[in-house]
Structures are given as C-alpha cells and as structure tokens.
Design a protein that fits this description.
The protein has 153 residues and is an alpha/beta fold. The protein contains 3 helices and 5 strands, in the order αβαββαββ. Strands 2-1-3-4-5 form a 5-stranded mixed β-sheet, with helices on one face. β4 and β5 form a beta hairpin. α1 packs across α2. The longest helix is centred in the first third of the chain and has 30 residues.
Length: 153
C-alpha cells in the first residue's frame, strides 16, 4: 500500500469518527429536549414522534471545517435520525416533498467550534486527545419559529 492511499484511509476514518460523533450528539440533544425553550407551564412538551423532519446541510459559521467533514456530518446525521425512528419522515435539504408535510420540523446545525484530537495523546492517556466539536442546533417549525435550541459538545 502506498503512502497516499494510507493517508486517504486515515483521513476518511477521521471524518467518519467526527461525523458520527456529531450525528449522535444531534440525536441525543433532540431526544433529551422535549420541552419548549420558554419552559412555560401552559405549553405542552414538544412531541417529536409524529413529526416529519427536514435536515438542512451543516454550516460552519465560526470555524473552517473541510467540505468533506461537513458532507460526512450531514450524511451521518441523516442516517442516525432515520435509525432513531423518532420522526415519521426524514427529508433532505431541498426535497420538494417536504413542502407537503403539515407537521414539518427543520433541523439546522452550525459547527461553531472544532479541535482536532491527537491519537498520540489518546494512546498515552484515556482522558486527553479527544476531538471536540461544538455545535449550535436549532429545530424550527414550518413558520420558522424556534421550537428547540441547544449548544452542545
């Protein structure tokens, strides 16, 4: 195996790990927050199960993420949301069929922080060397009103 192929495999592996981390984090945040942001007693908790969701492409407003990372994060987020079975239908950004969904929610994800980890540090100790990504997640209703907003790592 030549050195270029090995580097490509390492890069692809890194993208897969990071994107899976973000996708799983997105699902966890969506799953744990079933309360509207106002926390008002007169508003019922948000029920995700009956809704359709449209996942917007990942943006990176504050940090420079490689396009391959953004794409992988988007694809893995779609797959994880589908596997979770928390939503009736999962649409991609730009899917015209989403326009007909009466109960549509839109997921926006903005990567606002990124620190690449170190394999060397992870080999020496289990508490250092992890890749960290900070994301700002918004779930919007059909009218663009924020029904859930969370910043997570």
């Amino acid at each position: 195996m030549n050195i270029c192929n090995r580097r490509s495999q390492i890069h692809a592996s890194r993208i897969a790990r990071i994107s899976l981390f973000i996708a799983a984090g997105t699902i966890c945040i969506l799953a744990t927050f079933a309360v509207p942001p106002s926390f008002a007693a007169d508003q019922p908790p948000l029920r995700l199960a009956g809704h359709a969701i449209q996942v917007q492409k990942i943006i990176s407003s504050e940090v420079k993420l490689p396009a391959a990372f953004q794409y992988a994060i988007y694809e893995n987020t779609l797959e994880e949301i589908k596997k979770s079975a928390r939503f009736k239908t999962v649409y991609r950004e730009g899917d015209k069929a989403a326009a007909g969904a009466a109960d549509l929610l839109v997921l926006e994800t903005d990567a606002t922080g990124f620190k690449e980890g170190s394999a060397r540090e992870r080999q020496v100790t289990t508490v250092a060397g992890a890749t960290t990504i900070k994301v700002h997640i918004k779930l919007l209703d059909r009218d663009g009103k924020v029904v859930l907003e969370q910043i997570g790592r």
